[in-house]
Inverse folding.
């Protein structure tokens, strides 16, 4: 009853509860789920590697979330004279 053939015909409508992970995200996470699974809060090798990966992921996400054009508030700030 839980085989792939059965699931292939299902349309899942409760994405508020869970959402299938994008293939790209799954591929990026795979090394950290299988071989680089260290605790990012520790100081040993696996942990440092995990911590570096989290820092990199945060940078990538932040870059994706940054606006592409300044808001009116940002344009207003850029017109303000700088205090030297």
């Amino acid at each position: 009853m839980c085989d792939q053939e059965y699931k292939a015909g299902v349309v899942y409508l409760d994405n508020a509860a869970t959402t299938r992970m994008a293939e790209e995200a799954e591929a990026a996470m795979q090394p950290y789920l299988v071989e680089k699974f260290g605790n990012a809060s520790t100081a040993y090798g696996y942990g440092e590697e995990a911590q570096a990966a989290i820092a990199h992921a945060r940078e990538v996400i932040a870059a994706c979330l940054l606006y592409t054009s300044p808001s009116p508030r940002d344009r207003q700030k850029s017109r303000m004279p700088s205090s030297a």
